[in-house]
Amino acid sequence: MSEKPARRRRWTWLPLLFVLFVARGAAAQAEPPPVQRDVDLSWDTDKSLLYLDIGFRDIIDDGIRNKLSRGLPTTIVLTATIQKAGSGEPLSSTTQTCRITWHVWEEAYYVEIVRPGSSQARWTTTLEGVLRRCAEAHRLLAGDATQVSPALQLYARGTIQINPVSAEVLQQLKRWVMRPSSTGTAAPGDALFSTFAGLFMQRIGDAEHEIHFFTRARLPTRFSSKAEERRAQ
Amino acid sequence: MMGAYRPRSFVRLARLGALLVALPRLAQAETEPAPPNPPENTTETPTVSAAPAAPPAAAPSAEPAPSESAPPPPSAFDASTSEPAPSPTAPPAPCDCDGEHGERPSSRVRYELEGIVVRGNTRTSRRVVMRYVPFKPGDIIDVNNPAFELLRYRLLGTGFFREVELSLEKGSRRGQVLLVIEVSERNTIVVNDVWMGLSKDADVQGPDKGQARPLTAYAGLDVAETNLAGTGITLGGAAAFAQYQLGLRLHFLDPAFVGSKWMVAGTLLYNNAHDFFGNARVMQAGSPQGEGELTDYAIVAYKRLGGTLGFGRDLSVSTQVWAHYRLEAIDADYPKAASHQRGFDREPIDFNIIRGKSWLSTVRATLQHDTRDQPFLPTQGWLVTLNGEFSLLPSAVSYNYQKIEAHATHFWQLPWHGDVVSLDLYGGAIAGNAPFFEQFYVGDLSDFLPDRVLGMNFDRRPPPNFLGTQIVEERYGDYALKLLAEYRLQLYRGQRSIYGIDAFAGGGIYALANARTFSDPPTGYSGLARIPVDLTATLGIRADTAVGGFTFSLSNALGFAFTGKGPAAQQGSTP
Question: What is the widest separation between alpha-carbon atoms in chain B?
Fold first, then answer.
């Protein structure tokens, strides 16, 4: 009488144990956590604008450097939100998008940069010229006094993506993967097909390469743009 | 103004920013090829075209900043300038220390494609790679054409390659380039399916009568090489085993038959199996189970040897059509005479197969429309399959029947937590004398019973019969209907070896009937109980992983707790 219920109870725990096991494994292999990076935040006291300065040359590894000179465009996107120290609520955000195309015959890089309020296209012949423009962001407009109080301690959270896959392209890919014309993989519904589609779509994710970062909270430095202009003149 | 500057989602913002740079050309490239713009003078003129620069829009994340704080105003080279910019006709001017050339006015870089080079393909033939390349020598290619991006992912999506890199190299003349496709091959032998389970009361040859094992195991495996000898052809094999049963399959798929858009698929099959017939209190003559004694079932032992050959093609990105021819030789043996209790009446058992050797020859047409967003854990879209199978040369073969099936599933994502609801409708009908393995089987409709594996039935239990209807009298039928609703709870999403884990729970109703179900219903049932329907339910976990999709369901195990009984079996006597 006493054995049977006990055995039943053990069996009912098995699926739960399995879920916990799988979830534990899944959690262990989840995305790497954001890394801390040095970012300078500064207020232009004349114009009440908040600027962000950041460098991320270290993530442009050899693979990406090689990719830059393959003749096809490479896009580097920096996005960041400005947040109040101790709070998870974004106060403002900014982005810089850089598209680099190596011109095979000109042997020069064509660099298109889009930042808040501006866009520019430039040529450069050296990788250093590319990195200076695309792996660094100087005076990137990140907010103004209506959004961010100048007295606040702030930190930034952000993402750097290499070749982000746009939603439209992703959708096209998904549709194609769902029905891979002229491929010998498998048919939808097969475990095999799911393997490929899963490998394919899930691994693509949002970009070819992506890192998340955050910064230490601090009071932004201050500068006067008018004074700088006077000095420059 | 600045109010709009405040973001809700910076990720969305980033994607939009990238999109604005990358995709103004998308629509153009998708709808029309890049207009030919060959270099006028290939010896002197750089290949950068004089086309108006596509204006990269300002970052969407911010409203235009206050004018006094904005970065320097757009120069003549600013892409926002709408004036056609002069084509660069001279090599870059001497540069500053870091090689700056200043601003140039074109964002469209185009070349004449001289050739396509495939590297790294040690096993996969060049022809297989070229199947996915939408360019040919002589084309004018725009480096911003998203077809390059799609090409890379499509090659990855074949499953043949671990890495794919595209690059352009100088051609033999100025303005010409070579498209280099560098691939790194991967293992292409994959496990397609795994079956394991327990059958109840399926030990047909126990060591001694009355000592048959109550539970017996079955197992199976389907393995495929998806890139056979580098040709892109899939060749696979499957085997399933149970007690005294064996099923083998050999299947192949050529996704581009002689380089055309037609696909060819074929299957060779061999089954040495048996199946269980009779509802209750079976009497049989000429059977090793016992002459004239009451047993639980009668057994059909049969062998199938044959195959299918089919052609298919894509009608669109979401619709595919197939036509298959099938030829099988069947050899069946079963008791010379057998009867069972159907309701309270004793009737002869119809085994729905010809004793001895027989032939099956059919043509099957399949139309599939699939708009799901994911194959294993879809969140939206339709999956609709229509199937029609008809005997070919009915006068020359043993079975003359027509079978139609329709299966539609729709998925909706709910606004909370990414949960998904799906509705699944299945229906089918058979006219004529189809062999039993082609009929609709109750185990394929009820989640409480194991499905057939490679066409073999490993279980002989009747359905649970929650509603107390005559469904318990039906094992194989000519008409089937099933409606199932399912709720999927999102537990985990990842990007490495486990892509997603969902818990699911579903329930529905199904019906299985023959022509006699209504014209000559079994005795012992009245009113609504004459409608052969039952409830089904499912509960478990689905995991989408790098090695395939897995479903762990409790309903099959729960099925051991519910065994339906007809009125005769419940009373334990024959009137």
Answer: 108
Q: For chain B, give every domain's residue range.
A: 23-37+108-186, 189-571
Distance CA B358, CA A161 (A): 64
What value does the mean pLDDT take over residues B555-564?
77
Model confidence band, residue B363 (pLDDT cutoffs 50, 70, 90): very high
| Common-topology check for domains B23-37+108-186 and B189-571 | no
Helix (H, G, I), strand (E, B) or coil at B104: coil
Strand order in the sheet with A35-36: A35-36, A207-214, A154-164, A74-84, A90-103, A108-115, A118-124, B100-102
Instruction: Show residues of chain B in contact with A197, CB under 8 Å.
Output: 157, 374-376
Give the predicted TM-score (pTM) of the model: 0.65
Reduced to 3 states (helix: H, G, I; strand: E, B; else coil), residue A231 is helix
- HEC profile for B388-409? EEEECCCCCCCCCEEEEEEEEE
Q: B3 contacts in A (CB within 8 Å)?
A: 146
Cα–Cα distance measured from residue B184 to residue B186, given in angstroms and rounded to the nearest whole number: 7
Of residues B19, B48, B70, nearest to A118 (C-beta): B70
Terminal Cα distance for chain A, rounded: 96
CA distance, residue A195 to nearest chain B CA (Å): 4
Residue B247 pLDDT: 96
CA separation (Å) from B225 to B132, B234, B249, B262, B325? 20, 6, 14, 20, 24
Which tokens go with A181?
Answer: 């014309």
* B40 contact partners, CB below 8 Å, separation of at least 6: none
ipTM: 0.74
Candidates B329, B286, B271, B193; CA nearest to B458 is: B271
pLDDT given at position B81: 29
A140 half-sphere exposure, CB direction, 13 A CA radius: 33
Residues 151-210 of A with CB under 8 A from B: 158-159, 161, 164-169, 172-186, 188-206
DSSP A83-130: EETT--SEEEEEEEEEEEEEETTTTEEEEEEEETTEEEEEEESSHHHH
B24-31 and B10-22 helices, crossing angle to 10°: 50
For residue range A14-23, what is the model confidence (pLDDT) as tens digits? 555 555 555 5
The answer to whether the CB of B82 falls within 8 A of the CB of B76 is no
Domain covering B23-37+108-186 in this structure, CATH number:
3.10.20.310
CB atoms B227 and A184 under 8 Å: yes
Which of these CATH numbers, 3.30.710.10, 3.40.640.10, 2.40.160.50, 3.40.50.1100, describes B189-571? 2.40.160.50
Tokens found for residue A157: 């959270």
Q: How far apart are CA B329 and CA B331, in angstroms?
A: 7
Q: Taking CB atoms and an 8 Å limit, are A80 and B10 in contact across chains?
A: yes
Kindly state the helix (H) or strand (E) to which residue B178 belongs, with its residue range. strand B176-185
